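Escalation from tier 1.

The customer reports that the assembly of four entities below gives different structure tokens on two consecutive runs. Tier 1 could not reproduce it. I'm attaching the input and our single run for tier 2 to review.
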Amino acid sequence: MNKIAEDSYVLVYRDRRRRWLVKPKDTPKLHTHLGILDMTALVGQDFGVNVTTTMGDELTVLEPTIEDLVMKLSRKTQVIYPKDLGLMAVKLGVRSGSRIIETGTGSGATTALMAYLVQPTGMVYTYDINPEFQEVAKKNIERVGLSKYVTFKIGDSRLGFEEKDMDAGILDVGDPWEVVHSMKEALKPSGPMAAVTPTTNQAEKLVAKMKEEGFVAVESLEILLRHLEARVGMTRPSNIMVGHTAYLNFGRKTLPPAAPS
Amino acid sequence: MNKIAEDSYVLVYRDRRRRWLVKPKDTPKLHTHLGILDMTALVGQDFGVNVTTTMGDELTVLEPTIEDLVMKLSRKTQVIYPKDLGLMAVKLGVRSGSRIIETGTGSGATTALMAYLVQPTGMVYTYDINPEFQEVAKKNIERVGLSKYVTFKIGDSRLGFEEKDMDAGILDVGDPWEVVHSMKEALKPSGPMAAVTPTTNQAEKLVAKMKEEGFVAVESLEILLRHLEARVGMTRPSNIMVGHTAYLNFGRKTLPPAAPS
Amino acid sequence: MNKIAEDSYVLVYRDRRRRWLVKPKDTPKLHTHLGILDMTALVGQDFGVNVTTTMGDELTVLEPTIEDLVMKLSRKTQVIYPKDLGLMAVKLGVRSGSRIIETGTGSGATTALMAYLVQPTGMVYTYDINPEFQEVAKKNIERVGLSKYVTFKIGDSRLGFEEKDMDAGILDVGDPWEVVHSMKEALKPSGPMAAVTPTTNQAEKLVAKMKEEGFVAVESLEILLRHLEARVGMTRPSNIMVGHTAYLNFGRKTLPPAAPS
Amino acid sequence: MNKIAEDSYVLVYRDRRRRWLVKPKDTPKLHTHLGILDMTALVGQDFGVNVTTTMGDELTVLEPTIEDLVMKLSRKTQVIYPKDLGLMAVKLGVRSGSRIIETGTGSGATTALMAYLVQPTGMVYTYDINPEFQEVAKKNIERVGLSKYVTFKIGDSRLGFEEKDMDAGILDVGDPWEVVHSMKEALKPSGPMAAVTPTTNQAEKLVAKMKEEGFVAVESLEILLRHLEARVGMTRPSNIMVGHTAYLNFGRKTLPPAAPS
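Tier 1 run:
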């Protein structure tokens, strides 16, 4: 069941920089500077095989992980990284069956990861104000086979979401403070939210608004990822490093004060 | 359905440092230095309510997320953090239905997160060489209601796992290089593995062994998390920060070279 | 000539956390929880000796470096760290003979390092608006023997400095943007300035003002320092780490545009 | 006295990436893609002037700081950065009059900064095993006008230094542990040393050797520098960042145990 199919995404891998994500159906011959790889000949074989190009170079044919797919989707906007998505998923408690509200859809990278995690019984409701933008995301999600777990909506989320009692929410818009109230209305009580903000100014404004709307456990943070070049006798951190992607902001909805217990 | 029950874990929250994770059944009266909270009176109320202690202090009663539960479990060993677990989950592609192999069980913190993500149809097979240690983990997992998705096994994973064709694998032992071969045997072709190593020496030895066993896309990395104190007009990074938890190492199983295509 | 004198500062050292900076004259007997050390018996001995307390514990008697002295001075306000001071010194080009303008004096920690570097022919002119504050700094600087290289002044630096043609300048006040114009007037053409700002908001306001006043090569940055626990076979980064001290901001004064060449 | 001379190094500055370090004597016309700048016309003018190229582009003519000069020297080997040099200078207590021992000379970048700080009465004694390498450094140091404060020596520092009672020492060689004993012999009692090691393995071996040779206050650390893009309303850390330069290792020489006091 882990066989390469005509319509499977296949990750042809040489190293961290030279990797191709293609489908045999769409790319029967993969032309690289390392030679040509006959993709149709791979159909029916196991993922994980090591193959040789026409120029004698060895490549590995891997089954793409959700990380590979998400990174491909996000390449255009360069904002969302697995390091950030992973922590968001844990802090939001996303799992099979979760109902997630998101705005904006963007390239669909975050949407894709969340859809992957809520399957097969959950749903990601994702809003975008820009229909053309969302059309791209829709195709992206379709291409990676996750459309069943995503409901696309066009609309101004500042005016509210149609969904209620959502398990968790994600804000990835330029003015997230304008959507905090809508988010609160859409979340179930105690439900967590996350917001992605590139600048400190956005984080500052957002956090103030979240506290005003009664969210608690409000926190902002950033994640730095550094590779270690682990080589026998000469191990050292990588000198190439991404310095910043975005601040991640979290909080949980509360209800108005109850009568004293 | 998001109501507080007798047997629910409840997160009583004041701030990042003052939080209590208890069940009304086990702790009918929660005694804190901020006063006493009548937990039984909360049963039947919504999660998310703000309540007042006998001393007039306001607390919020939250539904714990998987992060809250995992952090509670890991508190004794202090190794696994949500920032690390989140990235591991994404890079391993864990989702509903995944079959995960893990060694060692440790406190069960990693096991718990993975079980949470594979439910309701997946399974985490977790090995530990120490029966007493695993007994603690078993109780932890039971307490957080995830036992159905975990199979506990006592055994020396250096000698092999009983499972085959696992979707992903996790190594969290002191000598992970000794288990890489067993891991390879247990994984499905192209299946990803992750290993947690606190020291650079372990990462170095492990990575060499993984490459020797034919794993590709081998990488080691570390994640640094820093809080931002986002306050209007006086935003600054937190001066308190964890400097190191562990290096995370990743790779994917390959098959022996196929005949040239 | 490297002998311990009655009036020398002496660093009694056990480890990073247990260290005492005292003078034999003022502390003839050093009482520690590791036993008592007879400081007067050390007079005339070489710095660097290993000695034994009354309880049999071994300690080393070191000649304090300027870092030891500065860290002692800054302990009260906790803002300035050697990592920051070192880069500031390099970027400002401070050296023997330099004439430095500074505001505010604060605890005198920055002043002390700069005085140390400009000796024996340079001078640090340091302003503070608060006479009591500066009195403390004056004593600090005196105690570490650097008074000859410091001129203390009480005054509101927003209204201007009395000095002109300074080689470099340092701002460490809460509203540094208010002093940028004064700084420009006091600096020699092309002279570099540095400003220490704990918050992003301060850095933002300051940088805007510096550009407005014609400073070029304007940059803001922060420095993170992490220890490595280097131990044979078990090397790992320290898990204790300071997350933030301050943003350092730099720029260089320019002259009004010349006629086209 | 802060005038541009025929033989002055001049930093022609546009922004962080577009900067040229030249002398009017050697480069009478500076050709850039922003147009041509007549350098000889600048002679006699003040540093800090803003000038216009033949294409109408505005550039600033700055007096280079020691940082500018050092960065230019180190560009070839890419190892030493101001952030590292600054902390080393502070921790070694380098100042006017200091006598510093160094091996190896390398490109002379570290040598240059130390020479700059010890002037006019101190001296940097710098060893290299490779005469050709040192020839390059010698020219570099000459070019930046610091030759009077540097004594160049060819020799294998593993076999010992000719100097004694040095105030501080610097190791920047591939096998620093082989030179620790020589360093101890050359330092004054209590004298501090620093060693630059790119890998964790080197730090590990070095630190063990330093402790064995009786150095105390031994510590290893790394410095990360991140720029902040401080812009009104849209401040964020830079996404470009150097992930690693080297570990810095420090310690202080002690004397054999004295008789109990």
